[in-house]
Amino acid sequence: MNEATAWFMRQAADDFSGAERRRLDAWRAQSPAHARAYDRVQALWNAPELQQAAARSVASDTIDTLRRQAHRSWRRGSMAAAAVFLLVGMALWSDAVLMWLRSDYSTGIGEQRVVTLPDRSVVTLNTDSSIAVVYESDRRRVELLRGEASFAVQPNPERPFTVESRGVATTAVGTEFLVKDRETDVQVTVLSGSVLVADGKRRSDQAVRLAAGDQVSVGPQGAGAVDRVDTAAVAAWMQGRLVFVRTPLADVVHDLARYHRGYIVIWNPALQSLPITGIYNLSDPSHVFTTLADTLPIRMVRLTDHLIVIR
């Protein structure tokens, strides 16, 4: 794989010669394994997942520029992952700076943090999460800028406590609940008490009331069905674990990726729906991927400690 990545990046350089092209063609023709390795690296470089990650905070013309710069800066003996992370890393760094400017409290990747607010309500931030806090005389408002958090709210009927995320407002008087920004929707789970979940894009009379053990997801099409869930499993991250019950591999990877300093790609689309059941310790996220590869019909390729391909 290393030799394939070296050839792939070298062929995109401005000074790639005709003689080198003939050597590359000869190397690819040398064995089917060489050709497959080269094709895999090329597909990874053009993977839409990497494009989407960068597009969150970098304009498309900038992405193309970064790709060209990464190609031009390539030297023999380097890893293709370095160029990939030049692209993705700059996007995430830009996003992180903007988030830092807006947030009052935040966590890094793999970090959790407990924050006591002025009214003694307690917020537990999960990995890679940020909140902004606005307390006024008649209300308490917290904006979940990204990630996931638990809110244990001190009762005060005269000052409702509201958590906002992507236009979805969850209001409680005295209760404990989780809010998770899943990028495509917002998930709310009630651990105790009750809350009112309102979508800012819809009428107030369409708000959903949840009791302990209820969970709802609100996306562009509004609120989905209210589900009854195992709250201990949903909140297991607060004890350093993740619990999955017949969860699609794509969702498992999405959750685990939030604790991993790097990027993870599911190479084979057919694997995305593979059901996963298990309890995984978050103290070593990299080991979780090794466990998955050892116990499931999948293969895991580590291009570096920060770039994992599942196929």
Automatic annotation (TrEMBL):
Ranges for the FecR N-terminal domain?
3-44
Checking Gene3D superfamilies in the record gives: 2.60.120.1440, 3.55.50.30
**Domain named FecR protein: residues:** 104-195
Looking up Pfam families in the UniProt record yields:
DUF4880 (PF16220), FecR (PF04773)
Q: Which UniProt keywords apply?
A: Membrane, Transmembrane, Transmembrane helix
TM helices/strands, residue ranges: 77-101
A Gene Ontology molecular function term for this protein is: sigma factor antagonist activity
Q: What is this protein called?
A: Putative Iron dicitrate transmembrane sensor FecR
